[in-house]
Amino acid sequence: MEHAALELDVLAALAAARTRPQDVAARLKARLKCYRGAQYAAPGRTPKQTKEGAAACKDALTFLATLEGPLEPVAAAPEGLRLAGVDHVLDVGVEGVASHRGTDDSSSTDRNGRYGAWGGATGECIWYGNLANGATGASIVDDLVVDDGVRSRGHRLCVYDARWTVAAVAAGAHATYANMVAVEFAATFENDDAGVEARLRNPPPPRVRGAAAARGGTCWDLGLCRGCALPVKGGTVVELPDGRKWHEACFVCSRCGDSVAGKDKRKKDEGGYIFCAPCHVELYAPACVVCGAKIDGDRINMGDGAYRHPGCKKPPAKKKKAKRRVGPKALANLYAGLDEQPAAGDDPPAQLPRGSERVLPTTS
Questions:
Q1: Is residue 227 a part of any domain in this protein?
Q2: Is the pLDDT of residue 271 over 70?
Q3: Across-strand partners of 87?
Q4: What are phi and psi of 154, to 5 degrees?
Q5: CATH number for the domain that contains residue 170
């Protein structure tokens, strides 16, 4: 989904979540079935590692059950509030950090007043993730409501804050998580038309490396990627049962370089190296003793390290020829059957059986 379309989708999902929280609860109940420990794997999507597993989802369901009826939906805010979110996406997205603080140490309160005046209260929610993994406006709002790993559940409370009447959404690229979505809220907002016009003609304020950028981190400390040897700060991470981790972009076949990320892609771990199925077959699979082709899948052990495809017929066993031994008695019978006995001095029979002996008479 393109960023512009996603922004509209998230805004519509926010309004729906506030007016129909029971629909969010229904989706979260279905989500509970997708947890395997701390790993969450929605159908057809790449699994992602969470910090709390199903516990955060259950906590969100408890919260939704306590809401006293629906809230008013949020309307689309004037452009000035959206540009505040755009500035933050362009700022921290390049840096790859996960923070409500800008690289110049600006807060959402500061940014939301750049191109207009907010009244009453203002707030911000930020989502990080990979849009290529099937994210939609509804799934992003659900993630904010679950609020995995955030002790205060600040994003959840922000979504259901009764003070908000307007909201703006800005989506863009993020160096660590692939994408990010910033949602800016306000009780009221009045556009600064001149400020908005000037911002649309010019780039955002210059990025100044402050304390937030110096910290340069996310809420994850996952070690080093086995592919590129750089720190894994978050985003879509592939982890094997033995604890080895890769950035999704680094999880590729060691031979051909094709991506092997995703449940629908077969891969093999051989000697600490990851291979796609075709390369692993070519390099390591035994050849069928019947047809000679590599065996990919079921095979029948023929013994002595030989295998064949189940559909290839077993070659017939070679018959062993019995060795014929000829002794003195058999040789006597041979001569007895001849019309003439060999005369003294004659050459021996041309086809004298192997292993037999013949003593020729001597002449004086």
A1: no
A2: yes
A3: none
A4: -65, -35
A5: 3.40.33.10
Q: Considering the entire predicted model, what is its pTM?
A: 0.64
Upper half-sphere CA count for residue 350 (Cβ side, 13 Å): 0
Beta-carbon count within 10 A of 315 CB:
10
What distance separates the 2 farthest-apart alpha carbons in the chain? 144
**Within a domain: 66:** yes
* Full domain range(s) for residue 73: 1-201
Inter-helix orientation angle 54-66/137-146, to 10°: 90
Q: What is the pLDDT of residues 187-196, one digit of tens each?
A: 999 999 999 9
pLDDT (tens digit per residue) in 205-239: 876 554 444 444 555 556 778 777 677 766 667 87
Task: Please state the domain count of the chain.
Answer: 1
Contact 114, 87 (CB under 8 A): yes
In a domain, 262, yes or no: no
The SS3 assignment for 218 reads coil
Is position 80 within any domain? yes
Q: Torsion angle, CA of 146/149/150/155, rounded to 10 degrees?
A: -30
pLDDT at residue 357 greater than cutoff 90: no
